[in-house]
Amino acid sequence: MKHDEFIRQANLLENYVEKYKAKTSQYVRKWFKLEGNILSYSLRERLDARSSAFVDSNLVFTEKDPNSLTLAFTFLNQSGKRKNWKLKFASVAEYTEWNKALCISRRPIWDPESVLKCVECDRNFTFFRRQHHCRNCGRVVCGDHSENRFLLEDLAYDEPVRVCDTCTKKLS
After folding, report:
1. Distance of CA 55 to CAs 19, 119, 144, Å?
2. Four-point Cα dihedral 152, 158, 162, 164, nearest 10
3. Strands (E), 36-168
């Protein structure tokens, strides 16, 4: 199983979560489901989704508050409209689990292993010049152009991971 397929299949969370409604300035209890990269909610369990979002790098956290157990984020919905959601969780464990799952869902989909050349130096991959995936952007690069490691907490990595030279410049 490829890395991006594993990530997409690994996240399956379902639970009642309090969703903030700006019109009424109140939280309303909704059934949320995060399945791979699809985050959706409805009024009750197992009903058709009222609204859904494709979770990717367009999802930007605007608030993470473990004290009040709230996560707020903005994203583009399926029709390209900017949406803002603020969620309140019932426990620290639930907050932590959903935060990590949303971060993992934001990880980039990796370029296919059928790529023949490093995107940084344009040299062919060989038995000695191996392919490596940048964990920040998902591109395929050679070892010479992926020597740096960064702790990518926004993507839920717990230790420093391989990043390409282009991402190193952006992250430094």
Report:
1. 17, 26, 31
2. -10
3. 38-42, 51-54, 60-65, 70-76, 82-88, 132-133, 140-141, 148-150, 161-163
Domains of the chain in start order, with CATH, are 3-105 (2.30.29.30), 110-172 (3.30.40.10)
For 99-111, what is the mean pLDDT?
87
Gap between the Cα atoms of 112 and 153, Å rounded = 24
Binned at pLDDT 50, 70 and 90, residue 141 comes out as very high
Report the candidate in 114, 115, 106 with the shortest Cα–Cα distance to residue 135. Answer: 106
pLDDT in tens, 39-48: 877 776 655 5
Q: Residue 163 and residue 55: Cα distance in Å, rounded?
A: 22
Contact 62, 73 (CB under 8 A): yes
What residues contact residue 19 under an 8 Å CB cut-off, 6+ apart? 27, 28, 29, 30, 32, 41, 85, 86, 87, 88
Please list, in sequence order, all residues whose beta carbon lies within 8 angstroms of the beta carbon of residue 24, skipping any fewer than 6 positions away: none
- 85 versus 54: the higher-pLDDT residue is 85
How many Å apart are CA 90 and CA 27, to the nearest integer? 12
Longest dimension (CA), the chain: 61
Please tell me the pTM assigned to this model: 0.76
